[in-house]
Amino acid sequence: MINTKDAITKISNGEYDNVLKDVYVDENVLDYQKKRYINAIEQYETIFCPDDVEIFSAPGRSEVCGNHTDHQHGKVLATSINLDTIAIASKHNDNIIKLVSDGYDMITLDINDLRINDDEAGTTVSLIRGVLKGLKDKGYKIGGFNAYATSDVLVGAGLSSSAAFEVIIGTIISGLYNDMKIDSVEIAQISQFAENVYFKKPCGLMDQMACSVGGIINIDFKNPEKPIVKKITTDFEQYNYSLCIVDTKGDHVDLTDDYAMIPSEMKKVANYMGKEVLRECDSNEFYLQLAKIREAVGDRPALRAFHFFTEEKNVQNAVDALEKGKFDEFLDAIKKSGNSSFKYLQNVYTNRDVQHQNMSIALALSESLLRTYGVSRVHGGGFAGTIQAFVHNDFVDSYKSFIDNVFGENSCHILKIRKYGGIRVI
């Protein structure tokens, strides 16, 4: 632990510069992060008091490849990014948690009451209660703490701000009460439990896993109860590429049915073939039965099944390319992933509103601009919102300028691949 006054002094004096560079990768954000950390500590002091604290971080995430495959027990490639939730926290022994998130009222929670409360569904307190319940049921020690949290993970951009929050709670408990010994995969699974059972949102595990484990990870959901998580050993910075997330300012309103139809239509194909999900189906058998499948369930379910089988190969090719250091092949796999999402998965715009195609415009513009400087694809669930692009550092500023001119200032967010998941920074 470190006293808040000492922490402010040491951060100001540059004593943690190397730590922050290691965590956030981009030296250009060092001054911003130092000011951010100092401000968070000062907020903690104002709300609570000068104290001995620990500082924790949990990153946002980006889906790199494997678009809409996890719910079919498929494979994904995801990464943590250098946007995160940080928390200034100190333990105490009264079994009460007091947490203030930047811009919100204080949450007070008694750890002796971890019952599911349906009235709390969709609230932050439900996530905290669910994470604590999951940790306690796994036999980990839990306890009270004071915390101030702040996040720069973009909300609504598909970067998993909620998963980062769940992971930060698990990481705080791991650090304050369990010597940072709770496995990151277990924190991810408990975070998903909190979101599914307490928050009442039926999410997959990819978001929490990427936020908690950190780095570039390949997740195989063949057995979703025990997903196989493989961290890809690669120094992404050596390739001189940045990850750009473009907010196309699309409207997510009334897209619930569009999102829900993807897994339901994929399962129609799987069910026709006598299986529950597409991962259980043989792709060769799918092609042989295609005529009958089209007649039985329609063309769009068939196309979305095409996407699943194609995307499984794209993920594997991207993983192999990174492990072999063949970055051109990695970019090719990402480009093919975007192509499959647009043509077969068809989640770039809703066919109920064809005059508003923000992501289609962003992808067309990106393809025209990038040429040999990078690739782009839909990001996350699709239909509105964001695209991602891997852009060579020599062209990043030009790319951002063009994108911002079309979609508005700061529509393009230049990010880096972060190698850490949920951690104790100080």
Automatic annotation (TrEMBL):
| Start and end residues of each GHMP kinase N-terminal domain | 127-215
What keywords appear on the UniProt entry? ATP-binding, Kinase, Nucleotide-binding, Transferase
Q: Does the keyword Nucleotide-binding apply?
A: yes
Query: What residues does the Galactokinase N-terminal domain cover?
Result: 43-91
A Pfam family cross-referenced in the UniProt record is GHMP_kinases_N
Q: Which family does it belong to?
A: Belongs to the GHMP kinase family. GalK subfamily.
Name the chain's protein.
Answer: Galactokinase family protein
Q: Which organism is it from?
A: Ruminococcoides intestinihominis
